[in-house]
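Input chain follows. Return structure tokens only.
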Amino acid sequence: MGDYFLNSLYSDIDSLMIYSGIHPVKFDEYYCVLSKRFPFAIYYYIEKETVYVDAILDCRQNPEHIEKRLGKS
């Protein structure tokens, strides 16, 4: 199950090479894409033509914790 989880997340991250920038913006600067298989969200930002993944967080957390983790408290 662990390998399947990681492969699913890597696939979602790889898709950012094509689809980055089309996802909703959360917390002012982070784009948010939901994992296709698991209740996780990938938070990323774009600088010039580079996509930076800042966090992959469980969506079942308190939104205040997610905001704090992303440095937006």
